[in-house]
Amino acid sequence: MKKIHLLALGFAITTFVSCKQEVAKGTVETTAPTKVIERHEPKEVSYTVVSTKEWLTKNEADSTSLRIAYATNRTDAENLKKMDSIIVPKDLSGDIEFYLPFPLEVAALKEVNKIILFSYPSQTFAAYENGQLVRTGPTNMGREKDQTPTGLFFTNWKAEETTSTFNDEWDLKWNYNIANKLGVGFHQYALPGYPASHSCLRLQERDARYLYDWADQWVLADSETVKVKGTPVVVFGTYDFKASKPWLELTSDPKALTLSEEDVKQTVQPHLSSIMKEQKNKEANKA
């Protein structure tokens, strides 16, 4: 098992601090702490289809393997049990990032403080800080007749728990709205393993809670005016609702859904000027 070390902001596992003092000149030069993400890469990334019942019997006590299985099948604990068969990595020794499509680093996002990406084709999301991947996981987006809108959005208001505007019997936990007038946001909700929502971006609770705490809310000048927008969110790609689940292709081609640095760059590039404009505005309006 190989260890990979990536530099990232705001994600501390190991910290190195270097300081240089120049007493004669009366100055002190200090290098800010550098945070390091330690990742464990599996020896290989390949997949196989197995009987869900048999696999769970062997792995039900292994929380790490379960988390990877939920992610690779774009589902959660309750819905995985309902599946006759599932796709799982042959080598489960790596971190979850190595089984999902987003790259660990994107140089083109180095100047972007925070950004969240949602991929329709792969039904996954990724959060980056200054070009470093800090979180990734599965999502279930809008069903065919209620597809999630694509493009650039910004997080605005959030609520630990709120009621769906589509059905007042649906309770949405860790909800973060990204399209206020459309009522679209990301939040915790059941993940059946395919696009099934009414336009929102469903997440596992652990991921919804992370993004809820990590992303920034908007700042309002008054009830009608947004002074500062929140964290940029880019929703991209299309989904073939008539075809089989695209992640099943991983059994024959483990890189079938892989997104390269260039792929992410091309996805974000059309929105980059708007993102940087809003980021500059946010920095200018800090208290």
Automatic annotation (TrEMBL):
Q: Does the keyword Transferase apply?
A: yes
* Superkingdom of origin: Bacteria
- Tell me which InterPro entries the record gives: LD-transpeptidase, LD_TPept_cat_dom, Transpep_catalytic_dom
Q: Which positions are catalytic residues?
A: 187 (proton donor/acceptor), 200 (nucleophile)
Return the Pfam families for the record.
YkuD
Q: Residues in domain L,D-TPase catalytic?
A: 114-236
Pathway per the UniProt entry = Cell wall biogenesis; peptidoglycan biosynthesis
This protein's UniProt keywords: Cell shape, Cell wall biogenesis/degradation, Peptidoglycan synthesis, Transferase
Protein family per UniProt: Belongs to the YkuD family.
UniProt-recorded name of the protein: L,D-transpeptidase
